[in-house]
Amino acid sequence: MHSWRCYFSRLMRLSVRWFRLCPHQRQGKHFRSIRQLWSYRKVLLNSLYFNILTNWDTVLDSIFEPIYWLVDNLTRWFGVVFVCLVISLTSSVVLIVYLYVLPLIVHTYPTHWVLWHLCYGHWNVVNVVFHYYRAVTTSPGNSPQEKADFPTVTICKKCIVPKPARTHHCSICNTCVLKMDHHCPWLNNCVGHFNHRYFFSFCLYMTMGCIYCSISAKDMFLDAYNAIESYYQTPPPYFTSEEKFFHKSLLYLWVLTSSVAVALGGLTIWHAVLITRGETSVERHINRKERKRRKQIGKAFRNPYHQGAINNWKILFGVEKSSHWITRVLLPSSHPPHGDGITWDCPPHKHQAMDTI
């Protein structure tokens, strides 16, 4: 405010001096006064807005900040809708299976196939429900807010707190997440250190369940589809309302499970590849840029958190002995993940490799 007052007072003084001059003097002083005013305006604006750290990236971020804010808030609110959608669609599939598919299997299939469908189907449903519930309700882990004696990589510019290794800021949750993979709207939660296993297990078992339903109900779907096509014949065959609802339910079941199996199956395979490499979705982009940068200077890049393909899976699932593949992977388990998500141990050969780069 003081700068603007100085500017206007300076402008008034220059105007008074200009009018006091003779007409032939005004012409020579005219352009010099304009240049002085222009230069003074530039200095004034620079003193108010100039920042040596400002660049075009900062300007663009500032321009798009309202859009980012809108997207983040919409994602946060629509997360509740997506969670309700997952629950309702899954419940509808389970209900159709119990009302129509299982009774048909029990009455038409041999005993050993009936036992197989009962055991596998219920095991799959239990795993889907358990891991989805845990993925939604478990906190991914946040960066410590108080001072602590732990190694940090940088300071978060938004939270203004130290960021441990593999920690990234989530603009939707508005906090720093330990070993952040991504923010999942279908969970309305971030996928991080403490719920990464639940998220991947849910994706895996949901894909397996959809493939199971799609394959098991294929013949039933074809019969139901042919029956629905016959509705438009002249004259149409007679079906009761209950039979028509049965046909449409099977059609809905097969289309939904087949579509989810393809879409979610691709996502599951993608995350399986990342787990095998020992990196998250965020780290994949960072490592790819770092790999290109080092390649340009003739050096190689090695992921310091890659413990080997098998060890990466053991770390994710918390497998410490052979029996854990059954008790902690095939069966629902709420055991905590390996480590605290703040400090990370690198294999000895990785330390040596990084020193030679």
Describe the structure.
The structure is a single chain. The chain is mainly alpha-helical and 357 residues long. It folds into 2 domains: 2-49; 66-356, no CATH class. 66% of the residues lie in helices and 4% in strands. It is built from 11 helices and 6 strands. It has a two-stranded antiparallel ribbon. A two-stranded antiparallel ribbon has the order 3-4. β3 and β4 form a beta hairpin. α1 runs antiparallel to α2 and α3 (56-108) runs antiparallel to α4 (111-137). The protein is extended, with a radius of gyration of 32 Å. The chain starts with a helix and ends with a helix.
Give me the secondary-structure topology:
Layout: H1 2-20, H2 23-49, H3 56-108, H4 111-137, E1 154-155, E2 162-163, E3 168-170, E4 175-177, E5 182-184, E6 189-191, H5 196-216, H6 218-229, H7 241-277, H8 281-296, H9 309-317, H10 324-330, H11 348-356
Antiparallel strand pairs: 1-2, 3-4, 5-6
EC number: 2.3.1.225
Family: Belongs to the DHHC palmitoyltransferase family.
GO molecular function, one term: protein-cysteine S-palmitoyltransferase activity
List keywords for this structure.
single chain, 357 residues, mainly alpha, 2 domains, two-stranded antiparallel sheet, two-stranded antiparallel ribbon, 11 helices, 4% strand, extended, disordered C terminus
Unreliable stretches covering 5 or more consecutive residues: 349-357
- The overall pLDDT average reads 83
Number of strands: 6
Largest sheet: 2 strands, antiparallel
SS summary, helix count: 11
How widely separated are the two ends?
54 Å
Percent of residues in β-strands: under 5%
Task: Spell out the helices and strands N to C.
Answer: HHHHEEEEEEHHHHHHH
